[in-house]
Amino acid sequence: MVALSDDEREIVGVVRRFVDDDVRPAARALEHDDVYPEKLIAVMKHMGIFGLVIPPPYGSSQVSSTCYAAVTAELSRGWMSLAGAMGGHSVVAKLLTQFGTDEQKDHYLPLMATGEVRATMALTEPSGGSDLQALRTTALPDNGGYVVNGSKTWITNAEHSELFALLCKTDPKAEPAHAGISVLLVEKGPGLTVGEPLPKLGYKGVESCELFFDDLRAPASSLLGSVEGQGFTQMMKGLEIGRIQVAARAVGVAQAAFDDSLAYAQQRETFGRPIWQHQSIGNHLADMATKISAARMLVNHAAERLDAGDRCDLEAGMAKLFASEMCMEVTLAAIRIHGGHGYSTDLDVERYFRDAPLMIVGEGTNEIQRNVIVRQLIERGGIG
Fold this sequence. Notes:
CATH superfamily of the largest domain: Butyryl-CoA Dehydrogenase, subunit A, domain 3
Strand content: 5-15%
Structural class: alpha+beta
Strand order of the largest sheet: 2-3-7-6
Radius of gyration: 21 Å
Mean pLDDT: 95
Number of domains: 3
CATH topology of the largest domain: Butyryl-CoA Dehydrogenase, subunit A, domain 3
């Protein structure tokens, strides 16, 4: 397993201290008051977190994908919403780095590295869900550029992003359907309306909105890589880091739930002894720790393959599937260990439990992940 460099360990340590000193003391109140964490986001910008996947000369804080996953897990240990604030941004940065023209990289990446420009993906549609090839948003050629019409939904960071990597159809009649799909780099302006934030169970520190495109005009230079029909392939490649990031979020949330449970199980006494000494509680703690460790190993394995330049949709899919299901199990176990206190909004355990389902349905539902995994197993002839 690839170890973090000394500099990367220091970066993770700095983020850990930020989480312990600034995030955890504030997260509960911000969450329940439904307040956007502007000050915490500003600190993240100053720390270079929005540039962790952006290489020189465009940024100065690039780290390995393994370190990126560790930073994500630390942020999520404090408040998963903060990791969500930089998740889609990082996918767009990866798309630009790998597929963007020199002009696109020069224009966007330095601003994205500092967080001055925030970016996010615009994939999901009201009628499409996981079937991205069935999308209806179009970008049709017009006067040397494109005219965009359609809508997207559940777009995270929609209000606070200036740049959208929009998955759309530049050739609605193309067969197969994915051959007509492209990515446009769309900025806010006339023709783009951001809807009101959608109400959510958890993940409340960042907004999720609908986007409405009504004859939005985009220049030809907004086409990612200046090549039409490559958008589906480009986005699937970008989602590798996205799925690793979601899996790392799940590890972080589960770690927080475990840490709180371990501490509580040593403090809380019933029948004359700490509750961890009761076998049922002790078994919960043992299972939680084991599952978290296994999930972290899967995340690191996928991250290492990505850094090696290997195809990692199988590994990223496995990490996302296992870690997100694990997180749901661990946060439920945390509520069981805390008993009635775990159901109270006076503790953070209920927030972990509300945040956990997001990782199951986000960045491709786990049902879709299983489809991706089995196709790759057939193609590769198994694992190993």
